[in-house]
Design brief:
TIM Barrel; 319 residues; 14 helices; binds zinc ion; 44% helix; alpha/beta
């Protein structure tokens, strides 16, 4: 009787051990491992001291994490650049990157937006603007195809520089209610990427990327990508705000449709530089991705989108 009990116990242990080892998630995660090559971050912000987000703790995300905010512009710069070094981030589009350019000129591509068009043109002519990002008329309830926005897209196409357009899920979940002064103009009905369609018809040569990936409107993102070959997405925020399974669903949906070469890594760290690490780990934890697909997301797709030279790519890959 005692022997039989031991035998049952033994069988149970073997079975539970087997089922853990053979679960598809574990197998794939173990087989593929983490990507450890160079990374391009398409979505970074540089702030100066007065920024209203300073010292703010991020409210619980949809994965129930909170993040403590940094306290000054100097700290934001220092901690973000530290993350660049830690994760081998070799290029980054940095909105207001002129604030940090002298500290990391090799890495930073300066983004600017939400200023008069002529000011942006002047900044470009002086060599200080490499992208129009991020455009966020969304916060004021203004759609992409509003007449007031056309000069920005026109300028981006004329200068042949990327333009990043912000929609959902930018701003914390429940942001309309949590931060009414700053985010009270946001509406879910204003957040759909389909609003970009007339812009894409009018400016067929735009290098356009949807910031924050257009989640949760993934079917509409697919429709836009299907209709317009020049539409890319960055996956900033979705990679640290959404539960892992939902991020997986989003990525899988685009990749299964054949758009895996138009997904670019981004973090949108704002005053929480630690989310850069979280975002990178979340892509690595997407257990259905092959290493090649991770390399596409972390580097190759953005290198193509930005038009990096062969020499530059070779240099990054050998770092
Ligand atoms: Zn942003």
């Amino acid at each position: 009787m005692k022997n039989q009990l031991f035998r049952y116990l033994f069988i149970l242990i073997v079975i539970s051990g087997c089922s853990e080892r053979s679960s598809p998630d574990n197998q794939e995660a173990n087989a593929v491992g983490n990507y450890d090559g160079p990374i391009i971050d398409m979505h970074i912000h540089a702030y100066s001291d007065g920024n209203p987000l300073m010292s703010m703790t991020h409210p619980p995300t949809l994965r129930s994490e909170t993040y403590e905010g940094i306290n000054s512009g100097a700290e934001q710069k220092e901690k973000t650049l530290e993350k660049f070094r830690q994760h081998n981030i070799v290029k980054a589009i940095v909105t207001n990157g002129q604030l940090w350019f002298d500290d990391s000129s090799e890495v930073i591509l300066v983004g600017g937006a939400n200023r008069p068009v002529e000011a942006l043109r002047k900044q470009y002519q002086e060599g200080g603007l490499q992208a129009i990002a991020e455009m966020s008329p969304f916060y004021a309830g203004i759609l992409a195809d509003d007449a007031s926005q056309m000069p920005y897209f026109e300028l981006a196409q004329e200068l042949n520089i990327p333009v990043g357009f912000h929609i959902f899920p930018g701003g914390p979940n429940y942001g309309i209610h949590l931060m009414p002064q700053m985010l009270g103009g946001m509406r879910a009905y204003n957040a759909n990427p389909i609003q970009l369609e007339e812009v894409l018809v009018k400016f067929p040569n735009l290098k356009l990327y949807i910031m924050h990936g257009g989640w949760p409107y993934v079917d509409d993102v697919k429709a836009l990508m299907y209709a317009h070959p020049n539409v890319y997405v960055d996956i900033a925020v979705v990679n640290w705000l959404l539960p892992q399974k939902e991020l997986n669903n989003y990525l899988k949906s685009l990749i299964n449709a054949g758009f895996g070469e138009r997904i670019m890594f981004g973090s949108d760290q704002m005053v929480w530089p630690q989310v850069i690490s979280v975002g990178i780990q979340s892509v690595n934890n997407a257990d259905f991705l092959t290493l090649d697909q991770k390399e596409d997301i972390f580097y190759d797709n953005a290198a193509k989108f930005l038009g990096l030279s062969e020499a530059e790519i070779e240099k990054h890959k050998s770092q």
